[in-house]
């Protein structure tokens, strides 16, 4: 027999899932920070206005300053009084134009945006050239990258391994399922999927692949950078990074 315990705090509340899109340029990341603008903080402030009480929002991933999202996911408990479509419109009416709640749907009480996720998908965008109109959403590189070399290096990263040396602050093992690389004219799209990512791990991987593509390292040296035998290059900048989708 399964016994479910409810705290008094959540009696009369319902569990919801939000799918969120945001331009991260003017935010100090997802997570609430004192005296700094964050995506989580903006949404919680909107909920405070709507419900006149504190509502905690849990994100699937803590994107860094300047990182964007097509499909960030958040979970939360809210009072019963508003149905999800009405709440979606209410939140969108109380937040800035650089955040948009795409979906608001009911979920089971045990759903958690972070801990229920099976994998996360990130996309990184590189532009070969210079354009003022791409500066917010692309890593702009003047040098041409050798795409076959980049793909060869990317293949060596696939699998379950310790990515500590390609991240910052975080440590641990991640199962990197895939890195897809697609070039369309002057734009390169890298799609990475893993069960989870360490802090700045995606940007560390992209930074590594870029120097390989420039011919500064050979694909055979990639695993030495992963293990820390060779110092990894600087992480790629945040502008080109998007949290694309969270899989449940």
Could you give a short description of this structure?
This protein is α+β, with helices and mostly antiparallel strands. The protein contains five helices and ten strands, in the order βαββαβββαβββααβ. The protein folds into two domains: 13-106, Alpha-Beta Plaits (2-Layer Sandwich); 119-247, Pseudouridine synthase I, catalytic domain, C-terminal subdomain (Alpha-Beta Plaits, 2-Layer Sandwich), CATH 3.30.70.
Describe the structure.
By secondary structure, the chain is of the alpha+beta class. It has two domains: 13-106, Alpha-Beta Plaits (2-Layer Sandwich); 119-247, Pseudouridine synthase I, catalytic domain, C-terminal subdomain (Alpha-Beta Plaits, 2-Layer Sandwich), CATH 3.30.70.660. 20% of the residues lie in helices and 31% in strands. It is built from five helices and ten strands. It has helices spanning 39-51, 84-92, 147-155, 201-213, 222-227, and strands spanning 13-22, 57-59, 68-79, 99-106, 119-128, 139-141, 159-162, 173-184, 187-194, 241-247. Strands 1, 2, 3, 4, 5, 6, 7, 8, 9 and 10 form a ten-stranded mixed beta sheet that branches. A hairpin with a 2-residue loop joins strand 8 and strand 9. Helix 3 (147-155) packs across helix 4. The longest helix is centred in the first third of the chain and has 13 residues, at 39-51. The model is unreliable at 1-6 (pLDDT under 50).
């Amino acid at each position: 027999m399964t016994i479910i315990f409810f705290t008094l705090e959540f009696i009369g509340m319902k569990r919801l899932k939000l799918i969120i899109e945001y331009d991260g340029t003017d935010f100090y990341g997802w997570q609430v920070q004192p005296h700094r603008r964050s995506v989580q903080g903006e949404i919680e402030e909107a909920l405070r206005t709507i419900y006149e009480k504190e509502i905690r929002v849990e994100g699937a991933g803590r994107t860094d300053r300047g990182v964007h999202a097509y499909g960030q996911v958040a979970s939360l408990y809210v009072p019963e009084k508003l149905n999800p479509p009405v709440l979606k419109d209410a939140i969108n009416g109380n937040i800035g134009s650089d955040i948009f709640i795409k979906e608001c749907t009911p979920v089971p009480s045990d759903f958690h945006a972070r801990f229920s996720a099976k994998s996360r998908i990130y996309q990184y965008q590189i532009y070969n050239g210079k354009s003022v109109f791409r500066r917010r959403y692309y890593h702009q590189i003047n040098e041409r990258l050798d795409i076959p070399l980049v793909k060869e290096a990317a293949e060596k990263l696939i699998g379950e391994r310790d990515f500590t040396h390609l991240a910052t602050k975080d440590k641990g093992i991640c199962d990197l399922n895939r890195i897809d690389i697609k070039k369309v004219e002057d734009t390169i799209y890298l799609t990475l999927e893993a069960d989870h990512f360490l802090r700045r791990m995606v940007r560390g991987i992209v930074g590594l692949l870029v120097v390989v593509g420039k011919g500064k390292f050979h694909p055979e040296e990639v695993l030495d950078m992963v293990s820390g035998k060779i110092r990894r290059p600087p992480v790629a900048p945040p502008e080109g990074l998007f949290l694309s989708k969270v899989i449940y």
